[in-house]
Amino acid sequence: MKIFLEDVFKTSGTPTYTFVKPVEYTKLLVSLRTKGRGLIIEGPSGIGKTTSINKAIEEMGINTQITSLSARKKEDIDLIQLLPEFSDFGIVIVDDFHVLPNETKKALSDYMKTLADEDSISSKLILIGINKAGDSLVSFSPDLNNRIDTIRFEANPSEKIEEMLSLGEKALNITINIKSEIVNESKGSFHIAQLLAKETCINCEIIDNHSHKLETDTSIETIKAKVNQELGRLFYPKARIFAIGSKLRKEGRAPYLHLLNWLSYSSDWSIQIDELLNQNPNMKLSINQVVEKGFLKKLIEDNPLLQDVIHFDDQSNVLTIEDPKFLFYIRNILWNKFAEQIGFVGIEFTKPYDFALSFAGENRTLAERINSKLLEREISVFYDENEQHRILASNIEDYLAPIYNSEANFVVVILSKDYPKKIWTKFESEQFKQRFGENTIIPIWFSDIDTNLFDESRKYGGLTFHIDKDFEKESERIVSILSKKLEDKRKERQ
User: Fold this and answer.
1) Pick from 86, 133, 103: which is nearest to 312 by CA?
2) The domain 353-493: what is its CATH number?
3) What are the backbone dihedrals phi and psi of residue 246, each rounded to the nearest 5 degrees, phi first?
4) 25-152 domain in CATH 3.40.50.300?
5) 131 or 124, greater pLDDT
6) HSE of 55 in the Cβ direction (CA atoms, 13 Å)?
7) N or C of the chain: less Cβ packing under 10 Å?
8) pLDDT at position 493
9) Whole-angstrom Cα distance, residue 333 to residue 265?
10) 456: helix, strand or coil
């Protein structure tokens, strides 16, 4: 019997020759047999969640009515929202439930609790989602956790991937010379292993089974390059859209680019943003800016190209890759080259702040405007009101001293007639005065001050804020020049 390559190493649909029971399969069988009790199956894409459910139902010979719905199909969403109004609906499987609106998730959560309490024998709800998707559902109804089964599909162990490849070798009567390398590159994903194995066979012109055994002759580097080149046509535009965010800020801190880069190193295909920011304090301000103000959520919601590859749960601040091919693509790009290609100037940041603002309270309006305009450009700024919650209960001098002394690339000093009169500006200037010789202090002189005032600062290049001109235009001019200065500094480090 002729067996075709595309039927052996399948990159979509349920495998015919290469299905391998994942570690969680037995637990899945028991849960499916349990009447009424809801089931949540969560884990990364491409590791066999949906395939395992289909195989388990087939193996058990379940003759109950089975309805499969997708949270990505508009016509199915209408049915999903109506589910709590039905009774005796058999088994309903909702795939990608994590993309449902929060109100629909809450309704499903309440309904699963009701089914469990009633010990329903004629209705069972199965929800399939990405890694940690069940956490958001339980957050709506904390007591739901004791009324449902949650099965977490982890990345498959190497022996499972190897077993799958061996089944494919047997079906095609071949030996894959880079099988161990494919196991390693798949990172626990059946889907990626299928993709790499299929490309290996195509590269060696093996498209069906043979009567005599054949062995492939290629390298993993060749196969990875071919696969990533092919994937790049689809995924480069998506990666670029996400990395840039709403607008390219080449002088900024590239918060979206960093999130994507962190995802590429994630072992479970998702990142908990708050945890990573504790490990990367230099990016904390710029990334908190796009997360807390809803920019990250809006970026994904407004871009259909992103919605099938990446998901953000704003309840748990978890960012997750949904498409295993997209993850493989970003894991195998040259990040410095990618950043440069899309227009960023440097992606390594050694200090928490790009600018620290020093000013008298009377000039807060200008300081606030400079701060907000710099933040819009994804530039990290120390401005006291941004960090009031952190300063609270701290020793203020201990908190501020290192910021002005060394933790900002530049200190922007707003020099008005009020500046010398304030206790805190005197303290701040004591911290940064030694930095004048390092070319990291940028004075901004008010146009109405005596030219002899702050004469020491006149030895260095600065800017004049013209009080008699339009405030918005003046502040925008200043921010544009500051941004250009920062861009030039980033270029020096390349």
Assistant:
1) 133
2) 3.40.50.10140
3) -70, -25
4) yes
5) 124
6) 19
7) N
8) 61
9) 12
10) helix
